[in-house]
# Entry
Amino acid sequence: MINLRIPGPTPVPPEVLEANARPMINHRGREFAGILDRVTSRLKEFFLTKNDLFILTTSGTGVMEAAVVNTLSPGDRVLVISIGAFGDRFANIAKAYGADVSRLDYEWGKAADPEDVRRALAADPAIKAVLVTHNETATGVTNPLEDIARVVREFDKLLLVDAVSSLSAIPVRTDDWGLDFVVTGSQKGWMVPPALGMVSVSPRAWEAHAKAKMPRFYFDISAAKDYLGRGQTAWTPAISVFYGLELALDMMAREGLENIFARHRRIAQIVRDGVKALGLELFADERFASDTVSAVKVPEGVDGKALQKLCEDEYDLIIAGGQAKLAGKIFRIGHLGFVSEEDVRAALDVLAKALPRVGFAVPAAGSGG
Amino acid sequence: MINLRIPGPTPVPPEVLEANARPMINHRGREFAGILDRVTSRLKEFFLTKNDLFILTTSGTGVMEAAVVNTLSPGDRVLVISIGAFGDRFANIAKAYGADVSRLDYEWGKAADPEDVRRALAADPAIKAVLVTHNETATGVTNPLEDIARVVREFDKLLLVDAVSSLSAIPVRTDDWGLDFVVTGSQKGWMVPPALGMVSVSPRAWEAHAKAKMPRFYFDISAAKDYLGRGQTAWTPAISVFYGLELALDMMAREGLENIFARHRRIAQIVRDGVKALGLELFADERFASDTVSAVKVPEGVDGKALQKLCEDEYDLIIAGGQAKLAGKIFRIGHLGFVSEEDVRAALDVLAKALPRVGFAVPAAGSGG
# Structure
């Protein structure tokens, strides 16, 4: 049995995989309208929002683009808070569409400081929107989104949130925190395969949308809204993933959202404790370490790629490497969505066996299994 | 057993549905790299091209947008040939991104005339690119693409082709005909669920791409090319659909592309003959009637919606209605991808039974079954 421990695509429960294999239906017919309606309502419960919510057939990057092009015009001044590769991506998307990007950058491994956001907004009243990664998958760091959102609300700016690898696993209280455009992807905390992105749109984001001049067509939320009124998606949807998503959301509703959050907190702590017991060092500032993905420093003298390959080839454990400038310097363990304590304990056991084989002496206490 | 006879999503063979249910893997790992490589090579055989080919996680509309934004700049003069709703969509995408759109419009049900294209290009040398629908799903008409392409080549313009509902079922000879940017979608002729769009890019299209200034990020083929070099897609792909696509392409390769074309021609003729035998009239100019979808006029005095509902509720036959201005005026029968003579004969039998129940007297010869 493969233990897929990357931060997405995440493992999919067997019954959800089975749902994935149901025959095709008419995406403009009554059966699909029922699925779309139920899934949309359920997703709102998990987004903790009464805002409009749309499901687009695309990956996480596509819904990040949707956030930008639906709310901004070329030349708009925006503040992008980047703590890693996905923050950089948000900035690059905004730049590609002609936004005037001001950056608040942090050393990778650190979280953003809401007071810096306050200073940046106070210093530059032209800023119209703040773009922020909630959970930075590249570094295993979760930003203090609630505190950042409070500052952004004080200044009455638009807040676009990449919650791709946090939503449904780490609390994102869309309405309580006043988040305007929140995006996530099916292959992360939702226990289904990739292909669907979900976005929530606040009344404030709709106001911005009415004036937003960035070109858009496929990702246009006006089209999504028009069609949703008829029980349809604007363009042909990833039907198989919808089948699975409806079932996965039922399973999640049975577990309960707060219980899901607690499970992720508990399992993440097991990973962090286990990694340290192995004599390894976490990459992230531990006060902001993510409950969905842990980044671990590759120890001095160890070949990170060789470790990854050994885990995969001989122990059926799939972990992720580092991205961009962290390639070879960290490895990452995903623990979001369909994940149990046993899954991560099994992963830690494999590391205890594999690390000595790539030249790293695990302390006696850490190899206990 | 449901007989899904709409022009997409099309039925998926049982073994392909099963492949859809395989567990997730690392999209940045070796196993996926192998799938991506094999599927990409196979698709080139079906596109009849040696051009670059990329697979994007999106619907047909998304790859139409990819064709536009990757090759054009705002203000570029383009000629859009529209014979129906999907031609209009191509024009709307180009307009949304700031192209200066000149239109060559035809009455719905008719095909474009290559001589009109010649006149339009001769009259307006500023035109940089021609955008054309190969097979208009909304009207059941196939444009004479080879002849249109010959004219476009004479004038040395860029040719962007929406082959969403033709490719793999109706001949599209990408390299022989000199097609620059060809797009299609997984849920049409490919026998897999929706979520993947495929695009081929000629050297001429790459030259245009190098100068093209329309904003793009998710659909940027430069990113797709960079990542394909590493055996990856730029963004997280619809993995389950890839599983199915690999298998479906194997099945298609066993049948052989020319045999697949012949099967579609034969089955389409059965539909057209059968519809006429029922006393119904085809909507499309029959010289250009599509081999993948047939549009049929709703007879005087018959409620098209009631016919559709009756077929679905009592006979398990799903047909499509008319789109946009054809709503209520036509119904459409899909016959592309995983389709046999038996499937369309069964559909015709249902129509023979259902039509009298909505007030249309079927001639004695037509109800023979």
Notes: Chain A has 13 helices and 13 strands. The mean pLDDT of chain A is 97. The two ends of chain A are 18 Å apart (CA to CA). Residues 14-254 of chain A form a domain with the Aspartate Aminotransferase; domain 2 fold (CATH 3.40.640.10).
